[in-house]
Amino acid sequence: MSEEQFLSPTELDELPTKVRKSGNLFIDTSVSSLRQQEENNLIMPANEAATSDVLNSPPPSTTIDSQSATAPPSQSVMKFIESETQGLAFTAGNILKKKVLANRFNQEDDNSDMEDNFLTLKQRKAKERAVAWITCLIVNGIICLVLLLIAALLVLVVFFAAFWTPDLSIEHLSQNSFYFDQYSRLVAMNVSVDRGRQLKTLHYRDEGCNSTTTTSCKNTFVLIHGTFGSLHGWNDWTTTLLNSLGRETTRIIRLDLPSFGLTGPYEVNTPLSYSSNTTTTIIDDLLYKVLQIRTQNLILAGNSLGGRIALQYVQRFPNKTTHLVLVSPAGYIPDSTSNETRGGVSFIQSLLTPSTANLVKVITPRFLFEIALRQVYYDYNRITSRTIDMYFHMMRRQGNRAFIYSSSNTQRDDLDVLPSSQVFPRINMPVLILWGQYDNWISVSNANKFSSLLPNNTLIIYPDAGHVAQEEIGVRSANDVVDFVKRFT
Questions:
Q1: Which structural domain range is residue 49 located in?
Q2: Of 149, 396, 418, 479, which has the highest C-beta tally within 10 A?
Q3: What pLDDT does 51 receive?
Q4: Would you say residue 177 lies in a domain?
Q5: Could you tell me which of 311, 266, 200 has the C-alpha nearest to residue 410?
Q6: Radius of gyration for the chain, computed over Cα atoms and rounded to the nearest angstrom
Q7: DSSP letters spanning 459-479
Q8: Among residues 122, 152, 183, which one ends one of the domains?
């Protein structure tokens, strides 16, 4: 057996118990046993040399003396014992070395296993923590999303509850004497243009001189409001004109244009429903078919959109109008080669886009009208709560908001596309132009354009007014109209 050879576990188990249990390099029990066997002549040679010595030796005598009994073992036996002892000692040392190495390896394996188990446990815990964090994030994300949806829903509910503004029926509005008084009338109009579209209700007021008698009125005023306005915006003018010019000789007719005020929209809307031809035809039918007026002087007055309609009326019926009053009018059309603009856009008009038109039908809170009035008034202190309510309620007249986008985006006809440089010079009647210096909708710079093209005009610019001088400084601007009429009649 070489020094490099090690016993396997199975060989280790087959060793004698005495050897496996002994920790000494020299096994005393094996040596004593061999000596006893030699004394009893029972030891067998371990090699040929020992066997030859035994065979060649003389047979033992039957008589054993004390000297032979106590003599030491022969040299061959001692060599055998020494060889076996060294083998056993080497084997025992090899066994112990194997045990030490095995224990070391086992300990290293145990340490490696413990380390692997520790790393596995650490990784498992890290994985569990990661899964827990991810789960927490997902759960929290879902909870946050649900909460956000609930919050958004609550905001929408609160928003609609706060700003939901349903339509108001004409019956409801007519119960308010400020909107519908003793001079108010409702009439159905079958418009002779635009394929006979019917205007179910046209709201107008007729005050002053009654021209149904045999005598005609001296002065008849027709007052036309602007975008988002109504006939109520002429209240100060009506009172001032009647008191200054005489109720017996002066007649004031004012109307709510289609889709504004109490008039409401057409029963069926088409691109031409709000065109120049249609609107001017309604005014002419009202004056001469419904009211059958007789007057010496027909004075047409309009603000903003109403000013444009008044200009278009005198183009269509030049012989029916004697005087024209324009208050910050729209309707200036630059030449095709000019870079000039036609005018400004109102705050509420800016809200009337295809994407917001349906929303505006049901949500037009009152504060929007206060914002709009601050755009057209120079002095905010002149904006009264009644004025805000008037605009707010008139817009909510049933059907108005549904078609307000249509009325603001109508198909234009020939009267609305010809350059002003070609049209205005043909208007020879006396014209009074009134403009607020701080007009934010239609710049006061347009006043000089109108004045330069209208041959017989008087221009007054108010240093403390905005876009609606007939409302903001109603009495003062009406007195200027009185002076104008007296001077040219």
A1: 9-122
A2: 396
A3: 42
A4: yes
A5: 266
A6: 60
A7: EEEETT--S-HHHHTHHHHHH
A8: 122
**Angle 451-457-462 from CA coordinates, rounded to 5°:** 70
Q: Which helix (H) or strand (E) holds 390?
A: helix 385-395
Domain end among 105, 122, 139: 122
Please name the helix (run of DSSP H) or strand (run of DSSP E) that holds residue 48, with its range, or none.
Answer: helix 48-56
Distance of alpha carbon 323 from alpha carbon 300, whole angstroms:
6
Any idea which residue has 């396997």 for tokens?
Answer: 8
- Buried-state track 134-165, b at ≥16 Cβ within 10 A, e below 16: eeeeeeeeeeeeeeeeeeeeeeeeeeeeeeeb
State the DSSP code for 62: S
Cβ atoms of 242 and 479 closer than 8 Å: no
- pLDDT of residue 58 exceeding 60: no
Is residue 116 in a domain? yes
For residues 479 and 240, is the Cβ–Cβ distance under 8 A? Answer: yes
Tens digit of each residue's pLDDT (9 = 90 or more) over 364-411: 889 989 999 999 999 999 999 999 999 999 999 998 887 766 555 554
Average pLDDT over residues 291-320: 93
Bigger pLDDT: 279 vs 4: 279
What tens digit of pLDDT does each residue of 76-100 get?
A: 666 766 666 666 666 666 666 666 6
Q: Closest by alpha carbon to 420, among 336, 318, 344, 345?
A: 336
| CB 85, CB 31: distance < 8 Å | yes
Determine, yes or no, domain membership for 127: no
Residue-wise pLDDT for 464-476, tens only, equals 999 999 999 999 9
Q: Are 364 and 349 in contact (CB under 8 A)?
A: no
